[in-house]
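TL;DR need structure tokens for one chain.
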Amino acid sequence: MKKGLRIAIIAAAVCLLAAAIFTIVRLGGEKRRQLTCGGVRVEFADDYSFVTQEDIEGYLKNEYGAYIGQRLDSVDLAKVESILENKSAILRTEAYTTPDGLLNVKVFQREPSVRFQKGSAGFYADSKGFLFPLQDNYTSRVPIIDGEVPIAFESGYKGEPKTEAEKEWLAKVTKLVGYIQASKTWSSNISQISVRSNGDLVLVPRQGKELFIFGQPVDIEEKFDKIGKYYTAIVPSKGEGFYSTVNVKFDGQIVCRK
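>> reply
TL;DR here they are.
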């Protein structure tokens, strides 16, 4: 009898708790349906400044319409994310609403790994090979490659390179830049990379007058080993600035010219 009574009491308590939770959820849902959107709160998931709070507000105002004053539970979150993720410097977004009546947007910006300068046109590429234009708001401090960059790029273009040859070249160059950036020695010593008309990459050091003719962005580690040998074996005997070019693109050779 006592055991049955305890079970009955527990069951009644569980039912009462479930009913209370249901009531709270129902009342919360009704209150939520009565809320209207009072504005947007933007959170940036990184330290880049390609886009600002004002940019986000402007994009939504121009392309979403009047979301402020709209019933909060009817704000089209998928549309908000789609509008923002169509912007070149934005990788992805997370949109959600909160009981304080705000549309919240968390913004993840693209992380450029290299900047290309081709004549008057400039553009970034991220580590995945996605191209996007330079931004008016912010300039990222990443390695710059200029000269005869073999990638066709129209003003405002965003996306992957258009040909397989361009994609392959970009992947190799991105790997080269990553190798340089990962090395304390080379990241502090290489100031610029240029592309010649024949496709050769030329590395310009921060100190010294030598230009290092690197050739195509292949055999990266071997070529930097040869540049290292130039500094440790040739410079001590010839002196800094004795040669104007140091060619490391040929197998097993370091070709120096005055």
